[in-house]
Structures are given as structure tokens and as C-alpha cells.
Design goal:
Shape: globular
Helix content: 10-25%
Strand order of the largest sheet: 1-4-3
Structural class: alpha/beta
Order of helices and strands: EEEHEEHEHHHE
Number of helices: 5
Largest sheet: 3 strands, antiparallel
Number of domains: 1
Strand content: 15-25%
Number of strands: 7
Radius of gyration: 15 Å
């Protein structure tokens, strides 16, 4: 439903309601993100039968120490690629290289949020791998 080069999203407020249909399942294509630097989002009307991973994290993770010249520092990549925000989730972690519920849930749609949340158990139960990131996604950026 949505594809954009990461470098074209710098400082953008992404309104997913322009692309997504409420009360549908959505997955972020991490391969496109990692290999092509593209944010690519797929939407399914029924539960998907494809291998996928879930990431459980706090929206506002721990602040990171900032070294501008160290690629292992998450804030280095923020400076290189910038960030974008999803409308309705502006208060969460700045999105640099990885995101899940910011994108997979329509943050501006109460019906979609309720629908998605009511299905979280099935989504987590059916995944191939679940990553729990209590420090937030900021620590993942350099990976």
C-alpha cells in the first residue's frame, strides 16, 4: 500500500490514512528497508500466512549517548538518514531505520487501533520470532 525511499522521507510527517484501509493487517518489509533503504508496507484483509517477526518495544526508549562519527551509535544514523514521523504517533521514538506498530497501526484511527490491539495476542502468538526491546528501538538503529 505504500513504498518510499528512506532518503525521500527525511523530516516527513507520514499520514498513513491516505494509503491504508482501517481494520486490516499490515506488515513492514524489513528486507526492503535493510537492502534497498525503502519503507514498504503491505496490507492484508485476512490474517497472513507468511513468516514474520514481531518487535515489542517501548515507544520512548532510553536516550542514547551521541558520538557523531561512530556508526555504531544509533544517533549517527539519525544524522545520516534523518527521521520521519507517522501522523498520530508524533510523540513516539523518532523513526530512523526500524518501526513496527508506528506504521502497522493507523495511529489516527481509533477503530483501527482497537481492532489491531484486540488481535495482538494472535499476531504475537503466530510470529516466527518475537524480539523484546525494553530500551526502545533507538538502540536498534545502528544494526
Amino acid at each position: 500500500i505504500f513504498t518510499s525511499r528512506l532518503d525521500q522521507m527525511r523530516d516527513v510527517l507520514l499520514d498513513l490514512s491516505l494509503y491504508a484501509t482501517p481494520c486490516r493487517y499490515r506488515l513492514l518489509d524489513c528486507e526492503a528497508l535493510a537492502q534497498n533503504r525503502e519503507v514498504r508496507l503491505y496490507e492484508f484483509s485476512s490474517f497472513f500466512d507468511v513468516p514474520y517477526t514481531t518487535v515489542s518495544y517501548t515507544w520512548r526508549g532510553n536516550e542514547t549517548t551521541h558520538w557523531h562519527d561512530d556508526p555504531s551509535d544509533p544517533t549517527y544514523w539519525k544524522d545520516v538518514y534523518g527521521t520521519f514521523q507517522v501522523k498520530g504517533a508524533e510523540g513516539g521514538d523518532p523513526i530512523s531505520l526500524d518501526v513496527l506498530d508506528h506504521v502497522c497501526i493507523l495511529q489516527t484511527s481509533k477503530p483501527d487501533k482497537l481492532w489491531q490491539i484486540s488481535r495482538m495476542y494472535s499476531i504475537y502468538k503466530s510470529c516466527n520470532t518475537c524480539c523484546v526491546l525494553p530500551g526502545g528501538i533507538r538502540r536498534l538503529v545502528a544494526l
